[in-house]
Amino acid sequence: MTPSPEQPARPAAAEPRRRSSARSTPTIYDVARAAGVASSTVSRAFSRPDRVNAETAARIRAVAADLGYRTNPLARALPTGQTSMIALATADITNPYYFELIRGAQAAAAERGYTTLLADAQESVAIEREGLERVIPTVEGIVLASTRMSDSAIRMLAKQRPVIAVNRDISDVPNVVTDHAMSMRQAVDHLADLGHRQITYLSGPEAAWANGMRWRSLRLYAGERGIHVRRIGPYAPTAGGGARAAADFPAVRSSAVIAYNDLVAIGFMRRLISFGARIPGDVSVVGFDNIFTSALTSPELTTVAPPLRTLGSMAVHNLLALIGGASPTTVRPLALPTRIYVRASTAAPATRRRSWRDAPAPREPATTRGNRLPSSG
Amino acid sequence: MTPSPEQPARPAAAEPRRRSSARSTPTIYDVARAAGVASSTVSRAFSRPDRVNAETAARIRAVAADLGYRTNPLARALPTGQTSMIALATADITNPYYFELIRGAQAAAAERGYTTLLADAQESVAIEREGLERVIPTVEGIVLASTRMSDSAIRMLAKQRPVIAVNRDISDVPNVVTDHAMSMRQAVDHLADLGHRQITYLSGPEAAWANGMRWRSLRLYAGERGIHVRRIGPYAPTAGGGARAAADFPAVRSSAVIAYNDLVAIGFMRRLISFGARIPGDVSVVGFDNIFTSALTSPELTTVAPPLRTLGSMAVHNLLALIGGASPTTVRPLALPTRIYVRASTAAPATRRRSWRDAPAPREPATTRGNRLPSSG
DNA sequence: TTGAAAGCGCTAACAG
DNA sequence: CTGTTAGCGCTTTCAA
């Protein structure tokens, strides 16, 4: 049992027998050998440079550089669980509303060394589930940018990985949201300042959280300013929905309209114009979202812009905080401020109130003011 | 040295000492123990079911299921190098042009069990490089959906990972492209059939490959149909560029205009209308790309739609073939067919040719025909 | 068909 | 500050 003295000690096996530095990408072992240090030192030189002698670190980096060594994130992820990846789930990547949000999230993630996995649901709950399912083991956290999932499904998800919801309020799930109250106040103030006394709200989907918020805020602020409000709808949150709203629109009643979103506003304007109405001559129109297209319509649409980019970056920022160990309660929900872009679809109401339905008149060329594009927001 | 008979054999060390099945997610070892098999058998049951007895496999899957076991893609990636991830690099995720392409790529990847990493360059070459750099070690291949990189940089990249370029022709790098010739032929045929005899081309960036293709094809097909062509520009590929083109536009010369892309066409129309021109009364306008907005302008824009979705899915399809070992030469470049959407911005030329600059007239309400949205393409 | 054992490339105690 | 030594969870020869 006891080895005889002259018996050679077990071969030191200093560094375990690794595959020779064949071709393929160099590893820390290759660098270690070339630099004459232990592999763990190389590892430290890259992952915690402060734990290594400055000179040694420099030498290692030099050797690594000319060997073309690059840390392998996968190999690093295995022992640490830190994949440096987060997922961004959207219900529909095709929806113009989300571009800036995605970009804001992307940029914030990249800045912190995180890579973004895109999980597009393509409008299907099943695809969303499946996509998330596949992605979960790989990511450290998830931003739910828009989702069709139920509250309970989201809570479930939040048990497996840190989750931040965007523009959705679910108890126990931290989120970042737009300041819907402020956005409506901006719309109302603008119209009121112009002299409008009645406003019609083109309602969006009843299930949409934002829709309820908008209507409630509208009543509140309009009331404060002595403005009469009414609501028609609900309509689909699309240009088609807006067109239907135009057909329903009681022209004599309101000199101003606030639509659930830009798409509805645009569809509404187009249809109304085809009926012979003048905008903003007969009716002023305000939308929400400031989608790219809203600066390209005739007339250009006055709209309230959500802080999309900020929404995206804040979501990621908070998510990374969560991942870093912050408690969900610490990550306070934050309502981000909006901004109104005044363009050509709003003006003072006509002094003589008569319906455009009585006497359709030719339109005037679109005027241009404040035609800022979304990207400058 | 030779162990005495009664000496116990080295402890079997059957399965190496792993951390007890503490909390956290179950591993193949947990499943193996619960199912009474070796960990390697569990591994096989999931990665190559055909190499395992059907019953055993079934039992293992059952045990795994109720343990809640799920294969860990990261752990699998380490020994095999198969991460099941591909990267999709875009120069600007905010560009409406790419939505459907991204979605097509995403869907194709998901279908084959691949996850898509989004690398948005945010218009910066530096960010693009850096993003790609970070992502390379993690992905099995890359789709370059739009990129600012130089040809040589791309060839470099292609040495590290399989690469498919979209709408870009680089020797030695397989690609998928739109059939630019066909798309221009569709535009010319449409205008010719309407009776136009002269066409003005609003040129895009000179560096853009598509721009050269379009102009060349235009000359070719217009020639075949006896149509006179001229070109003005170059202009930025934006609505602003189109507006500048409108200022330059020699109204008397052409009854029809083909723009480099939809954005240019839209900017052109708006500015021309503000000058008092009627579209399509005075000038017919055709764009390229069929971006979302083109169905929402007044008048709605006639445009030639690239097969974006197909472009995306084909790119991924070919990329996976490459990853699967297909030789680059096998993956033949393919020019995908386009489709023209005839809307309200084109009509037969006015019988009496006079310049709208002489006598601006009030516009008519937009007509509606073929106002299909991009998503239905 | 199944089991044992050696890694994939990197991190992380624990000594020294 | 640096080297040694176990693994992270899975795949994969090689034997049995």
TrEMBL record, chains A, B:
Domain of life of the organism encoding this protein: Bacteria
GO molecular function, one term: DNA-binding transcription factor activity
Signal peptide, first to last residue: none
Chain ranges of the HTH lacI-type domain: 26-80
UniProt keywords, alphabetically: DNA-binding, Transcription, Transcription regulation
Bias (Polar residues): 368-377
TM ranges: none
Region (Disordered): 1-26, 351-377
InterPro entries according to UniProt: HTH_LacI (IPR000843), LacI/GalR-like_sensor (IPR046335), Lambda_DNA-bd_dom_sf (IPR010982), Peripla_BP_I (IPR028082)
Official protein name in the record: Transcriptional regulator, LacI family
